[in-house]
């Protein structure tokens, strides 16, 4: 279970770094861009993906390009959600994206519905309502409600999961899809950041800095570490995928809650706390159904 703990820790540390970005004057857009360079390089050297499947007819290039656009866009939304809604609720929204992934599995991939899966789905949807139902005054000082960001995180990560499943169904190995998506995401973000920097030369806005680059490389290492350790956990417990699935998702919810409340003083309403319990129960039921 060490790999699961390391994966969950990396996932929460990504949120922590995004939470601290403004305090340390880090440009999140630049950090997200450099993050994909670090993730791409680490993927190449540590997973050693074979790209031969992408040279075959019918390679899912449209989905890979879509993933390259969705990933950095979702990362920027994630940063905004952490800033406004906090680490606790954002991490829960991210983990509960499995509910929409499960719905997609029923509708698009022919997965069979069972009583446990449906019960987990129902409890999970109640948990989603519990995390987005916040009084307007509880939104962060930047102003505006946090619930649209939370819902975007929830739906966005489910979309990424569905796209990855579609790519896998086309015969593309997981490591290869990550490698190409990370590389394309970096090219796209680098192009946008360069244009933004050139346009802001007179005002100094968008200027590329070493601080932002270093933060981005650290973000990329944590982002890829989350993926790598999760893959290693599945390899170490190959006969118990449901245990890895449940431990990872529940671990992130619990660890994110502890960090958000104890380290950053995030306040949770009674309804939020009930939602956390429902989220954990929903994840457990879905994992048990898949065991």
TrEMBL record:
The keyword Cell inner membrane does not apply. Pfam families: EamA. Residues 2-132 form the EamA domain. Keywords: Membrane, Transmembrane, Transmembrane helix. InterPro entries: EamA_dom, EmrE-like. The chain crosses the membrane at residues 59-80, 92-109, 115-133, 145-164, 176-198, 210-231, 243-264, 271-289. The keyword Cell wall biogenesis/degradation does not apply. It comes from the Bacteria. This is EamA family transporter. It comes from Uliginosibacterium aquaticum. The lineage of its organism: Bacteria, Pseudomonadati, Pseudomonadota, Betaproteobacteria, Rhodocyclales.
